[in-house]
Amino acid sequence: xxxxxxxxxxxxxxxxxGFPVCERPFLLIAGxxxxxxxxxxxxxxxxxxxxxxxxxxxxxxxxxxxxxxxLVAVRIPDSGHLPAVAREVGRFPEVTHNYERENxxxxxxxxxxxxxxxxxxxxxxxxxxxxxxEVKDLPAEALYKIKVDFKTAGRDLEAEEEDGR
Amino acid sequence: MAGKPENTFTEKxxxxxxILQEDIPLCPQPYxxxxxxxxLEHREVLERVGQWAASGLVRRFGATLYHxxxxxxxxxMVAWQxxxxxxxxxxxxxxxKFPQVTHCYRRPPFEGWPYxxxxxxxxxxxxxxxxxxxQMSRASGLEEREKLFSVREWKKTSMKYFGEEDAS
Lengths: 165, 168
Hints:
The structure holds two protein chains of two kinds.
Chain A: H1 6-15, H2 25-33, H3 37-49, E1 53-60, E2 68-75, H4 82-91, E3 95-101, E4 105-113, H5 116-127, E5 134-138, E6 142-146
Antiparallel strand pairs in A: 2-4, 2-5, 3-4
Chain B: H1 11-20, H2 30-38, H3 42-55, E1 58-65, E2 74-80, H4 88-96, E3 101-106, E4 117-123, H5 126-140, E5 145-156
Helix pairs in contact in B: 2-3
């Protein structure tokens, strides 16, 4: 983030949430940043090309779209099996995050699927993979926080905000 | 938290959602360009997207950054035991006040695993995160927990709704 100038930082602080829904959204943001619309668009293109911005779009509420989400804990006692299991798990498009963690439950992944039946189907398939001893389905029962906005001016923070993570 | 659609989505809605969740066009009138691709009027796209943003169907709209580049070296999921389940919300709210905590959920316990409150903590090192965990323990009065440091990231993507292979 060192190659960002003050204008870039100001842009990042103004485009991480609440992107305007109007005829000329970039013109509105350009006014806040204090540059022209054309320069703003050019700088956003550059921030994407320089791999500072990963994606510029909408994050949807999976539940309101009718999707079901959960967190899954997997215990693989012989860690030699873990890479193959992790790769198989990652093949499902419904798996959004998949982390190896320091615990007897050593693989944790989040799942967002079109139905509960699909979740069961995926969990059954993961349970049958070689080396898998236990698979625990841990759907969220309550949500207390999802952090959505990160300032670049101070400490740089960024996190995903997928349901079920 | 089982999914229940608030409304049903037309094919045009799904097409619109597919485009919005990718990268929106970087041009002076991006919704006009999207309208052209979907086959809707500019005004119709503004109305639908405006409604979705207002109703919370769109939870966040804007740029997502690469977080490794933003100075994060470590992430740790900590699962806490809450001896009195009725205090779950109160404890969750205490944890949520920590800026280093990006996610906080309550999840079911299971045999041999009494932990129910899950916090995702970000920091620049394991040592720094250990410090936050201690502070969170003191602030909440909760002691029993499992620290789940990430050893390796095998996959991290954004969910793509209404994809091609999606039967729904």
